[in-house]
Design goal:
Ribonuclease Rh, Chain A; four-stranded antiparallel beta sheet; 24% helix
């Protein structure tokens, strides 16, 4: 998979984002062990359908790690021994014409090489998640994990995101966060951004809807959005 010049529209040439916007202070271990073999659940049905666009999903790490700081299985992301993180890459997902998106296109699954894991961990600090994202989504987009994660991490690095600490200290709505992200990224509008929050209104994820050329596009109708402009809170991890 080749990265198109259109990626520049998402800020690749515009310099670094604010400190708290994405992964920072990353110091992953020099030596990694291979994660357990990928395990597919009953819903892991191979579905090969035409790709009509993509979703770039960015998780807000402080909220994800709340209560997981001492979970050994989440140590790379949440223990703070290997770095501290703001937004991290959840995945780059191929989309179809309906909610029945492509998935699990390779059978049987094969392991992501440790060299690719090492190059990806500062953006996606979980070996299990890296393996799962390749198995479920990347196998429908690229011939090998290296190409998939190269594209995903470059897209992730290209996005400019706001000062989340500043936003966390003021009254905020989902619409306000969408408009702030759109303002920082040429070619993006609020309609190309979806926000995921938990039932208590805390930010969990920002999802960016992209076309086949990786340019921002309006999110498809099947992408769930709350009615109205819902209030939003941002956990800072303190």
């Amino acid at each position: 998979m080749r990265l198109p010049a259109a990626l520049l529209l998402m800020g690749l040439a515009l310099g670094p984002a604010p400190l708290l916007a994405q992964a920072y202070q990353c110091r992953m271990p020099d030596r990694l062990t291979a994660p357990p073999a990928a395990q597919r659940g009953r819903d892991a049905v191979k579905r090969v359908v035409p790709v009509t666009g993509y979703t770039l999903a960015l998780s807000w790490s402080p909220e994800y790690c709340r209560g997981r700081e001492d979970d050994a299985s989440q140590a790379l992301q949440c223990s703070r021994r290997f770095g501290e993180f703001g937004f991290v890459l959840h995945g780059l997902w191929p989309e179809g014409k309906t909610a029945a998106y492509p998935q699990y296109c390779a059978a049987p699954p094969y392991a992501v090489p440790l060299s690719v894991m090492r190059q990806t961990l500062c953006a996606m600090p979980s070996q299990r998640l890296i393996q799962h994202q390749w198995d479920k989504h990347g196998s429908c987009m690229a011939r090998d994990p290296a190409r998939y994660f190269q594209t995903a991490t470059r897209l992730f690095a290209a996005v400019r995101l706001p000062d989340m600490e500043r936003l966390s200290r003021r009254p905020l709505t989902q619409g306000m966060l969408k408009r702030e992200i759109a303002r920082l990224n040429p070619g993006m509008t609020a309609s190309s951004i979806a926000i995921k929050a938990n039932g208590r209104g805390w930010l969990q994820e920002v999802r960016l809807c992209l076309g086949l050329d990786y340019r921002p596009r309006a999110c498809p109708a099947y992408v769930r959005q709350p009615r109205g402009d819902a209030a939003l809170k941002i956990w800072r991890g303190l």
